[in-house]
Structure formats: structure tokens, C-alpha cells
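Hey everyone, long-time lurker, first post.

I ran two proteins through the pipeline my lab uses and got sequence/structure pairs for each. Pasting them in order. The first:
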Amino acid sequence: MLGADHLQFFLEVARLGRLNEAARVLEVDHTTVGRRITALERAVGERLFDRAPSGWRLTEAGERLLPRAEAVESAVIAAYDSQSSATDILTGSVRIATTDGFGAFIIAPNLVGLKEANPHLGVELVTATLHNAVSERHFDVAVTLERPASRAVRSEPLAYYDLGLYATDNYLATHSPITTMSDLRRHTVIWYVDALLDVEPLRIFDTSAHNQKIDVQISNITGQWLAAQSGLGVAPLPAYIGDSDPRLVSVLPDAFRIRRLYWLVVPRELERLHRVRTVCTFLHRTVAGRDNLTPGGESR
């Protein structure tokens, strides 16, 4: 007789598309994954995947089984979670995957409130500003700049933020004036490493009216902020970073203002978990309390 664990093998292969990847997540050998899928196909009497060198893709039968398997998975997870929910003591651990800036400057400083309210809850904060950063789903809650296309997750707008240009007073006083965007060509501009930047919403200079050279390329927002703060040059920074730093001043505030949106992402099989819902509520309340963030449900 087949159990719910067979459906878990099915779900991981459906989400990841490769036996080796599913085996890594499930912490078993890939041959074990293959045997479980074969057994499940025999039990339902239909082929669930088309096998190809490029990956395993769901057949029509697999597509029909997917929502039912997700419902079973969600129910099993919720059952395990019910014990802690019933006692109002939040236990376990939640991994939050997010961009560098949002993680370091928004989430981390506010974790104290989450932990004070839930002292037994473990929190893992993982930051990276990468394209498709949540594709492998090694997270419980994520905040991203790109809305995932995967049907295995639920996503909703979390908050809008603005990017502006910032530099120190001393840098601006000792370098040529900046009155138009084209003046930036004569200045040290600090931004991401172009060869590593694959997040489309952050490729802000690709459509610039002039060919802007990026003199200093740093792979994370904290490094960019510290470089600008030291007087090295001009850096595009989220307003929640630049406006909060008294050592920085806004440059060309009327000419350079770029609005971007953070998405809140949760794997569908985890969205009913009490600890996951609690962290989502924490994130919504955190952005609602910031002057330089506009909650995603509000108008632009």
C-alpha cells in the first residue's frame, strides 16, 4: 500500500524536474526516488512524468494528481503543526530567504520584536540578490524582487520602495557639480557587479539615456552603502537606506527616482503553518511601520 511519502517524492520531482535534485532535497539516493515514482505510477495506472534529458515533466495524469498531492502534503504538515498551535507556543524554525538590502536593513533590525513575542521560534535569515533565488524552495518564507513563476508557491505584493542616488556632502563638495544625469559620467558610480547581476528590476542603467560607466562594482548592497558612506562616490540605494543615513544626501532627487516592488513568497504546502503565518504577519507589520516603504496593497 502506498503512503503519503510516495506523494512527497512525486511532488519534489514535479517541482524540481530532476531526480538528482529531488533526491538531494529528500536526502535519499536518486534510485530511491525513481523506484518510488515507478511504484506510484503502477498504483495509479498511468504515467505521471515524461522522462527527457532536459528533465522530468508532468504528463496530463501528473497534472491532475498534482493539486491532490499538494492538498495531502498541506494536511500532513498542518497536522504536525497543530500541537504547537493548540498551546499558543510557537516552536520550530522558519527560514526567511530575502534580498541583501531588505534582509540586512529591514528584517534583521526588527527581529527582536518577533523573538520577544515568540522566544521558542528559531529564525534563519538567508540573504542573496539573485535571479530565481527561490527556485529550489529551500525556504519557508521569501521576499523577492521578481515574482516567481512556479505554481508551487503563493506570492503577493509586500511593499514598494524607491531607489535614489546618494553621496556624502564632502564628496559632492570636492567634485564637479551634478545637475543632470549626464553629469554622472564624470563621477565614480557604485553599483552591482554587472557580470553577476541577473535580477532584471535592478538592471537600472541598461535603459539609461546615456552610457553610464560603473566605476566600482560591489556584489551586495551593504558594501555599496559603506562605499558611498566613505565618500568614494555616488551610489543608487533604496531610500530606506539612504534617507536613514545622516552621512548621505540625496543626489538628483527629481531626475532619478525608480520604484520597485518586493514580493512575499510562501510555498503552498507551508502556508497553513502557524509559524509561517506568524512570520508573514510580522513582515507585513514591519513594512507598514516604515516611512520609506509603501505596503504592496496600497496604490503606487
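...and the second, right after it:
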Amino acid sequence: MNRYKAAVQELISETGITINGNKPYDIKVHNPRFYQRVLSQGSLGMGESYMEGWWDCEDLDTFFNKIFTNGIEKKVQNNWKFFLLVLKAKFFNLQTKSKALQSIAHHYDIGNVLYENMLDPLMMYSCGYWEGASTLSEAQEQKLKLICEKLQLKPDQKVLDIGCGWGGFAYYAAKNYKVNVVGITISTEQQKLAIERCKGLNVEIRFQDYRDIDEKFDRIVSIGMLEHVGYKNYDRFMKIINKNLTDNGLCLLHFIASNKTDLNTDPWIHKYIFPSGLIPSLAQIGKAMEEKLLLEDLHNIGLHYYYTLKAWQDNFKKSSDSLKKEYDETFYRMWNFYLAISAASFRSRRLNLWQIVVAKPSFQKEYKSVRF
């Protein structure tokens, strides 16, 4: 087992992280089988062993930021010595195979308690915009204002919100810009709360798949939806935008994007957080738009997602007592790990958050970019 520990320590030697050290971002290993497991199973072994209490770290976000910015996984791939040791760990790892943990198949239908404690009052489960904001609630309202201004919303316009979540955008846009919003979701929990939130406004919340939309809208918005579409459907998604947008309409897509094109998602994220999720690259989205949509504006606010995730994690930790009444310790550790590794991904700029404004080729106006 010592050779696996030595290999892990050598891999992280340039990061400043020390095994069982005293710095907040040092890793505290409680089970010596951790080293072989993480070498043999990669991110899945890292995440599952954390969930099972094999190791801890006070500052998980900084720990992963150091791992990511130093390209630790590339060192394994590019170093023959490490590669052989990983193969050996895989071959002899049958006895330490992780016990079966129930996969979290429904990210949004686990009840609203978690999200009510973690998110802002409008329950926006997407990147906020922190320019001029000092609280999570202000950052989310700034994001919604930015989106509405980029879409040039005017009273009585018909707006489609694809993947409307708990109705935060629909509520904000209908109340403040007097537009008529159709929000669609395929989550029953989200639909119920969104309908309740938007009572009295010109808002319709449907349980409907985006592929079934067949009507014209002046504006279309999608906030945090493209991550669930999948690369085989990007082309179809853009065709649907084209089909349902009026000739001089505008569409805003707000989505996480990776710095590289990948057809697979992280194994741990796939198993426990987003079983059908896949982070697109800007190249994939651009290719899918060809001959269907014009790019009018491109805005990267990726670092704002780091601040948003840290705010979510703060709320999550502050609500630990009430959350642990609803969810077990394994679930609690799983979500803490997820929030930390996600924050580090944006902090290290592995992931970005793009807002793009698009229009149909028939668009006959000059679009002026909005920033504040």
C-alpha cells in the first residue's frame, strides 16, 4: 500500500498539498485503501471514497483548484511510471471495489427542501451575475435583469422559457417587463412550485419536452438547459429554436461550456449528480448553429459561477442541521463534494459560463450588446 501512497504524494508534490498536513487544503486520509482506490478508479474513486468518509479536507474548493491548475490527471497520462502503477492498481483492486451506493437518478425530484435551503428566494439554480451585487439574491436578480435587457423585452411579447426550473425567470420577466411567458419543464417538483410562484401573472408553466414545442415566440430563453441536451441533440435543439422563433425575434442561451470538446461526462458526476448531463464546448454549439442561427452576442461570465457556487455551499453548510433531518450523511457529503469540485472547475477556468444571443438569418436589425 505504501507505494500507492508514495505515488499519490509524488503526483501532488507541485501543488503544495500535503497528505495529512495542517493546511486547510491538505487532504486527511482516514482509510489507507484510499490511495489504491483513487489511482485505480480516478474521479469515481475520489468521489465515492469521500462520500464514504475515507478522507476529508477542510477547504475542498482550494484542494481541487490546485489539482486542476496543475493538470494532475495529465501527469498520470503522460508519465509511463504512473501509468503502469495505475494499471496495477486496477488489476489488483478487486478486493477494494466500492460497495454499491444507490445512484441519484433524479437530480431535481428529490424534494425541494435541499434547493430551498441552498438557493436564493427565486430558486435560480444557475450562475448569478455579481457585478454590483453583494448577496446571492442580488446576484440572481442582476442575472435576470441582464438577460431581460439582452433580450430587449417589451410588454406583451410572447416568451418561451425552455427548462424553466422553479419559475424564477418567468416570475421576474412577467412581473417587471409585462411579457407573457410560457415555461416548460419535465420535472414535476419544479412545475408544481413554478405554478404556485407565478400565480396572478401572465405565465403558463407546462410539463413539456422542448422537442414538442410548435408555436411562434418573440423571445426564447434557455438558462442552464443545454447541459442536459446531449451532443447528439444539439443540432435538433437549434432547429427547434429556429422553427419557433419569429423572424425578428431573439433567443438567449445561458449555459456551462468546457474548454474542450468531450463526448463523455465525468464518471462521478454521471453516476451521482447528472446521469444524462454533458457539458458542451463552444465549438459544438457553434457547429450546431450553422445555417440555423446568427450569433449576435457572446459573453463569458464563468468566474461569476465560482462566486455563485461558493454562496450555495455557504447556505448548504449553514443548513446542515435541517438538511441532515431530510437526507443521510452520505447524501450530505455527496452534495458538499459536488459543490466544491464545481466551484474549483470555474475557479481554475476549466469551465466557463456563456451567455449568447442568437437570431434567425432573417433578423433585419442591428443588435447592440448589453453589459453592466
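Reply from user beta_strand_b:
Welcome! Quick read of the second one: The longest strand covers residues 245-258. Strands lie at 28-29, 55-56, 158-162, 180-185, 203-207, 217-223, 245-258, 294-300, 351-359.
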